[in-house]
Write a structure and sequence with these properties.
By secondary structure, this protein is of the alpha+beta class. It is built from 18 helices and 10 strands. Bound molecules: iron/sulfur cluster.
Length: about 500
């Protein structure tokens, strides 16, 4: 992705793209509303929601540099896109209501939620309960009248065995929703469209990298199940991660390793680009990653070469993010520096083969699975413990795996790294994902290095990873809203932050 925040930018981009697909015709006009009490109202502009949403609505790829100029492109195409703070019922801080009008008269209203790390869920469509996370082929249809049993049966007859239409009946219309792991047969779609009582059909293809519904039987989905499964097998954390992803995606291990290799290439490109220097006007920190090597030559520094490379790499990725270059938001854009920065520094220093490094990312992914199925990655619901805390845990597991650690050592390293970050607040200065984000990413990288070293040396992690993640979740629930990415507390509430915000808004408006 490009942009400062996976929950604001990448999720909004996906929500916008799916919205236009469901509209079913070229976009003519859009109204995007945020609830006044929600987490996005104070900073939707600064944290890249407008950038992502506008890009998604205009079908600009999230890795395309044009996404930065989305607002100007909308004007050029004659598509008004209005952003507004309103009041409407929500049950998640990252909720957005979208009203889209099409060039041929269609109009749809969706309510969607960003779940963190670029994941989202659309929960309402045209006033009907509706659930998509963009990982299936979605087909939605509407009827003017309430359907009768014969009509439901006629629709079901057209569908493949095992595929079901979910109906929702409203006062003005009824809606049916069909999800499929595979592309809909065009003949079947045509037959559904031809049913005389169906007024409209829209199709939205999957937008997530892994399509759901192709899973085989899972050997484990929880930490407890993993421990039981692995008791007699003694697989490494990376092998377990790879197995999980293969069972989840239906892809072979070779295909998955290839995909991961490509992600590692993008991460390492973002380090190289950051080290060369990146530019973007709306940012607080300009290039600093080059300062470490310069200082190393000029003066005595505390630490050693590995520490310097960790700081340098993580800074370079964060600078690429702030320069709107392509990054891998693993686990999030705000926490994107830690994992790739520390893994590359360690692997370079110890001359670790590329295939070992690439496979170790599956150990990190395994820890990510427990977050995704638990507290998620959204700073708006749980602060920075869900971003750089998760990143530290993931990196610690990967590092332990690289050096031949058992799965218990890798997951123990993740536990220790996460124990050190419980309660970490989210308080980005001037609503930019830069300060204290850079320092938190670097600290997370060093934390991961220490935790993996401790685990490999036989230190006891005492609390198992699942209990630590559960603790993170309960601490998240008791965190004040002001410390969850709202710009209302912590460093975000300092006079300097207010001054910077004022100065940056002058720069971007001039
Ligand atoms: S403080 Fe942490 S969670 Fe908040 S924006 Fe920065 S990196 Fe993300």
């Amino acid at each position: 992705m490009r942009g400062p925040s996976s929950s604001h930018t990448a999720a909004s981009w996906r929500i916008g793209k799916v919205g236009v697909c469901l509209l079913g015709e070229p976009l003519a006009k859009a109204l995007i509303e945020f609830d006044a009490e929600g987490g996005w109202a104070p900073n939707y502009e600064e944290q890249g929601t407008v950038l992502g949403m506008t890009g998604g609505l205009l079908d600009i790829d999230i890795t395309d540099r044009d996404i930065v100029d989305g607002t100007a492109i909308a004007v050029k195409r004659g598509i008004p896109i209005e952003y507004k703070i309103s009041r409407f019922p929500t049950d998640h801080p990252n909720t957005v209501r979208i009203t889209l009008e099409g060039a041929h008269g269609a109009r749809i209203v969706l309510v969607s939620v960003s779940l963190g790390g670029g994941m989202f869920e659309t929960r309402m469509l045209q006033g009907h309960p509706f659930h998509t996370q963009g990982d299936y082929y979605d087909l939605v249809g509407w009827t003017a009248e309430a359907p009768i049993a014969d009509q439901k049966a006629a629709l079901n007859q057209l569908l493949q065995a095992g595929t079901q239409a979910v109906w929702s009946q409203g006062s003005a219309s009824s809606q049916f929703h069909i999800q499929s792991a595979f592309e809909f047969n065009p003949n079947v779609v045509q037959q559904i469209r031809s049913l005389e009582w169906v007024s409209k059909v829209s199709i939205s293809p999957p937008i997530m990298p892994i399509i759901a519904g192709r899973e085989s039987r899972f050997d484990f989905t929880t930490y407890e199940e993993l421990v039981a499964f692995n008791a007699s097998k003694s697989l490494s954390a990376s092998s377990l991660g790879l197995l999980y992803e293969a069972q989840r995606s239906g892809l072979s291990e070779v295909e998955l390793l290839g995909k991961m290799g490509e992600l590692v290439r993008i991460i390492e490109d973002s380090i190289a680009i950051g080290l060369k220097g990146t530019h973007y006007e709306d940012r607080i920190l300009h290039q600093q990653s080059h300062l470490i090597a310069k200082a190393e030559k000029e003066r005595l520094l505390p630490g050693d070469s590995l520490t310097y490379r960790i700081i340098e790499n993580i800074s370079a990725i964060m600078e690429s993010k702030s320069g709107m270059e392509v990054i891998v938001a693993a686990p999030t854009a705000g926490g994107c520096g830690t994992l790739g920065g520390v893994i590359k520094a360690v692997c370079d220093a110890k001359e670790i083969p590329q295939d070992v490094k690439v496979k170790a990312y599956f150990a990190a992914g395994l820890v990510g699975v427990f977050f995704a199925n638990g507290p998620g990655f959204s700073a708006e619901t749980g602060g920075c413990q869900l971003e750089t805390g998760a990143a530290a845990a993931m990196a610690a597991a990967a590092l332990a795996d690289i050096f031949g650690g058992t799965s218990e050592q890798a997951l123990g390293a993740a536990s220790m790294a996460l124990q050190n970050t419980i309660g970490l607040v989210c308080d980005p200065v001037a609503d930019r994902v830069e300060v204290p984000c850079l320092g938190k990413n670097i600290t997370a990288g060093v934390n991961a290095l220490a935790a993996s070293t401790m685990a490999l040396s036989g230190y006891a992690h005492v609390i198992p990873l699942d209990e630590v993640i559960e603790t993170v979740k309960s601490v998240a629930a008791s965190m004040p809203r002001s410390l969850c990415c709202t710009g209302l507390g912590g460093l975000a509430a300092t006079p300097t932050s207010a001054d910077l915000k004022k100065k940056l808004s002058c720069v971007t408006c001039s």
